[in-house]
Amino acid sequence: MPSSTKMPSSTKTMGVATVGALVAVTGYTVALGSNGWLWFGWIVLGLITAAVALSNPSP
What we know:
The protein is about 75% helix and about 0% strand. It has about 60 residues and is mainly α. The longest helix is centred in the middle third of the chain and has 24 residues, at about 10-30. The radius of gyration is 14 Å and the shape is elongated. The mean pLDDT is about 85.
């Protein structure tokens, strides 16, 4: 995303949470094995984050 585009803080927070959840789920998968519900939850979180990012009007 270009630096000239400003995102609302809530969208940034959701993006950070989504990336953090991806890191956590990946770490869990590497350490303890795959868990389908964790990946499903991450996909849902990612879709919600994408919807919020797309629904916010650009300044």
